[in-house]
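Q: What residues go here?
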């Protein structure tokens, strides 16, 4: 409900309180205002419940997102740990590379030296005019001992050349292998580092998205909380207006009850006067008849006297009568008509639509119009033997009276129907001791007043 609607109703109430009870503020108008306020209260309460549900849903989403953020934080921390580990490995590999570089430099130096040696030997051979013939060296020996020395020297030279070539090949192979291992290891580590950095960037991006959602949901929570607070404030104001309306309704019902009481007193006074006048007329007629009888009889005879006939008192028209013909389809008290157990504050009389509905007793119409689940309803306030009663006639198809109208017992006030919450054409009839109230705490079983 909009704020201006409550403000408008408040203004109407302020004017209503100042206006005379018999003026525009009839009980019908007051109860219509109360229905409007009750509808607004229901709408406000529904809105409050919707906001509560939305807040609860958002809180659940926030909880899920915060759990996701925690999970992402764990993954980010784990990834960062792996990145740190890889970075450590890369640093270690760089240290190994630095050490390996020194080893490579030494290998490269040895290879270069051997290359130089081999180049020198090749140059010496070229200067000598061809290849060295080790057989000529051996055959040029002067003695056996010289031959042995020359043989040993030749073997040493040949083995030295073989060793140089073997070491050269091994060192070159080792150099190539070491370079490949280091390059591969470094490339693998750098690729793993890049992969982990990409993963961390992705996790950071997800975390930022989740954080953005958190901000949005928190803003939504704040908005919903403000709207809920506003609705609760309006609901409280509606409660205050409803309370004022209930007071006015109670006062108007009391006024009508007093009018009905005075009307009943006046009716009883008129009945008593009419009864007294009738008795006096009957007594006078009896006296005249006795005088005529005496004058026409013999003088010596004793005058005869005939007592007036007993006059029976009329039936108590202030009691209740059955308000409609038809069968009793539902009794007073607990029942279940398909929507669960409920208290039935009256009786149901079933008959075809249009069946006449009569006032159960004389009184004043205190409400006539639609009222929620009652459908079309009439309420009549009565004063019977000094006690205020209110009768209720619900689910009508037609209403034949208006608020503040005086009705007599047995007078047709409407027609039977099936408006409101109804499973078929019937009259829902209630009797209340005192004025009608929304809780219907003063309802009594009508059977005890109208019979079966």
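A:
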């Amino acid at each position: 409900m909009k704020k201006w609607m409550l403000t408008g109703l408040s203004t109407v109430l302020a004017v209503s309180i100042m206006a005379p009870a018999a003026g525009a503020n009839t009980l019908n108008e007051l109860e219509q205002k109360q229905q409007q306020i009750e509808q607004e209260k229901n709408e406000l309460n529904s809105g409050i419940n919707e906001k509560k549900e939305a807040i609860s849903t958002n809180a659940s989403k926030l909880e899920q997102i915060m759990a996701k953020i925690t999970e992402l934080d764990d993954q980010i921390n784990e990834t960062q740990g792996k990145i740190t580990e890889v970075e450590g490995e890369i640093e270690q590999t760089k240290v190994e590379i630095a050490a390996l570089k020194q080893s490579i430099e030494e290998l490269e130096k040895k290879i270069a030296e051997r290359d130089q040696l081999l180049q020198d030997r090749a140059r010496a051979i070229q200067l000598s005019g061809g290849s060295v013939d080790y057989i000529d060296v051996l055959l040029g020996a002067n003695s056996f001992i010289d031959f042995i020395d020359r043989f040993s020297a030749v073997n040493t030279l040949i083995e030295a050349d073989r060793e140089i070539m073997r070491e050269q090949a091994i060192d070159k192979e080792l150099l190539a292998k070491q370079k490949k291992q280091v390059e591969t290891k470094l490339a693998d580590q750098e690729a793993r580092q890049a992969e982990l950095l990409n993963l961390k960037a992705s996790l950071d991006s997800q975390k930022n998205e989740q954080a953005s959602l958190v901000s949005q949901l928190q803003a939504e929570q704040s908005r919903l909380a403000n709207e809920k607070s506003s609705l609760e404030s309006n609901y409280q104001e509606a409660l205050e207006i409803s309370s004022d309306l209930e007071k006015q309704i109670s006062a108007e019902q009391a006024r009508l009850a007093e009018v009905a009481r005075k009307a009943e007193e006046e009716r009883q006074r008129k009945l008593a006067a009419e009864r007294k006048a009738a008795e006096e007329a009957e007594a006078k007629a009896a006296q005249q008849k006795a005088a005529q009888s005496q004058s026409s009889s013999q003088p010596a005879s004793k005058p005869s006297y005939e007592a007036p006939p007993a006059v029976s008192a009329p039936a108590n028209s202030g009691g209740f009568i059955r308000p409609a013909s038809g069968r009793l389809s539902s009794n007073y008290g607990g029942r279940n008509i398909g929507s669960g157990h409920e208290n039935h504050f009256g009786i149901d009389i079933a008959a075809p639509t249009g069946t006449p509905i009569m006032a159960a007793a004389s009184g004043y119409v205190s409400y006539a119009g639609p009222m929620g689940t009652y459908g079309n309803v009439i309420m009549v306030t009565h004063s019977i033997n000094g006690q205020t009663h209110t009768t209720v006639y619900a689910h009508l198809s037609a209403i034949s009276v208006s608020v503040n109208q005086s009705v007599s017992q047995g007078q047709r006030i409407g027609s039977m129907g099936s408006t409101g919450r109804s499973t078929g054409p019937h009259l829902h009839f209630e009797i209340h001791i005192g004025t009608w109230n929304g809780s219907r705490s003063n309802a009594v079983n009508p059977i005890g007043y109208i019979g079966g």
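A: Context that may help when evaluating the design: Residues 204 and 442 are 68 Å apart (CA to CA). The two ends are 46 Å apart (CA to CA).
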